[in-house]
Amino acid sequence: MPAVEEVLDKPGLSVEAVPEMRTRGYVDVWALTSYLVLAVIVLIQLWISPGGRVLAANDDDHGFFSFVMAHGERVLFHGANPLFSDRMNVPDGVNMMANTTVLALSLPMAPVTHFLGVGVSVVLLLTLGLAGTAFAWYWVLSRHLVTGPVAAWIGGLWCGFAPTMVSHANGHINFVSLFVVPFIVWQVLRLREPGRAVRGGIVLGLLVVLQVFINEETLLFTALTLGVFVAAYAALAWRTAVGYARRFAAGLAVAAGTALVFLAYPLWFQFNGPQSYSGQPFEPGKFVTDLLALGAYARQSLAGNGVVARALSVSPTEDNTFFGVPMLVMLVVSVVLLWRNLAARAAAIAALVLLVVSMGPELRVAGHDTGVPLPFALISHVPIIDLVSVTRFGMVPATIIGVLLALAADRAPLLPRRRRIAFWIGLAVAIVPVLPKPLPVVAADPLPPFIAQQMWREYVPDDRTLVTVPLPEVTTGRAGMRWFALSGLDYSVPRGYFMGPADPPGDRTGSWMAGPRPTSDLLRIAGAYGRMPVLTDADRRDAITDLTYWRAAVVVLVPGTPNHDLLKSVVSGLLGSAPREVGGVLLWDVRSLVPPSE
């Protein structure tokens, strides 16, 4: 493999390795099986009851991706528009391209969703995402970058089950499904080879298309990392890099053209279609990597401490670094061991650059902003960059660590005996405390008969909506969102948890919920604070206007919701009537508000 040797400066595969290739298939099966077992252990508590439990650390995104799976099922089985949903946020709908809707996963998973339910699809994709990412890196490492399967297995283990991956397994299907990334990376590096521009460019372009329909944010991270890597490698070996430049540029041009053929309309729809938006609902510097998080342990690591992790991380889904001090030491050891490998050095530089970027515009230490400016401040408001949660750039060094560990482990057998033993002991001390624990879950309330037995069909025509109270929003109404997803989106709902414009058409800034409406605001505040508002005639008129706007057929109070009796009084006061109990829920019939023919 001379081309690989040129880039990685590592000992090449010799004819002595050929006998090992005869058993490679068995080793591959063992590697994949081990990753699958570990992934099942991480998700085991959700596997026990996929439809009856929710992830304790992130039931919001668990509900959102349940909706995403149901949307994929409707596309395949009902002919729905894959880029737009009219089932949620009625009457405005949801721009699915402007949300992380993993169409490349939800559509193939549609038969599972159809026959087994959204709960099974969600936990299955989370499991396959972890194991698939680990195995994809193992595959690329074992075929192209290292000579031994043990080194490749170690690299895959870290890339698939690093703290950042396990934390995102709390509902983020998009961020655990990184199995396309190693193939994108390898195809980019292969563009330097003679005769690869057209064939390699087309393959790379198709991989980019696939990744766009899994997670665009990850594709951005990958592109930025490769850009820094190439720049660093060129600085270290300018003459070699210049020799590759023409072939490299030609291949990228072919890849861009190939991707554009498939992505031109979806991307136009994402940024200019209905319910598109720009920017995030928070400042770029709000969610950043804390410097002390590098040496700490994540809450879902074996050595993790919840109190420490909470102080250093923005949420349980964003433990994007948390390598532990022993791993930082082994990272230094690995870089020293690989110092003569120019590609490894360039990779380490890329990891360092993206790590600094993940720290945001100002250095944060132990939860306190120090006032020390960082380079990200210069690019924080650049379009596309301003759509990213900054701390997630920390996923890049986490992945590069896995690659460096694999390369170092591949070199370890060449060390003197004592150093070799010390290396393996150090690697074990670094990895074992970071291994994952099963993710926590909580039991979800069972569906009331009104939903489970589809009693709602008697009350909700196809062109009307079912309004649950609390209304589904970013921080409230989780039960209503779950009902909606588990029903397969058979009925339509107003509002919901999704990304859309804050208050169109005047304000197109990204928001996690629909634009403000008087009634939704009133109900949300009353439910959150447990205070009975003084209802006025204006409030009652607003309620009729909003329910008409939402095309409501019935208003349903979610059983067991916080401040249940107070919300019952509020809705009754707004509508001027008491509810009746139907199928385990309190229901207000408002079909008379909008003529059925309208």
UniProtKB/TrEMBL annotation:
Protein origin, superkingdom: Bacteria
Spans traversing the lipid bilayer: 29-48, 115-138, 145-166, 172-189, 196-214, 220-236, 248-268, 321-339, 346-367, 387-409, 421-439
Keywords per UniProt: Membrane, Transmembrane, Transmembrane helix
Signal peptide: none
Name listed for the protein in its UniProt record: Glycosyl transferase
Organism of this sequence: Actinoplanes digitatis
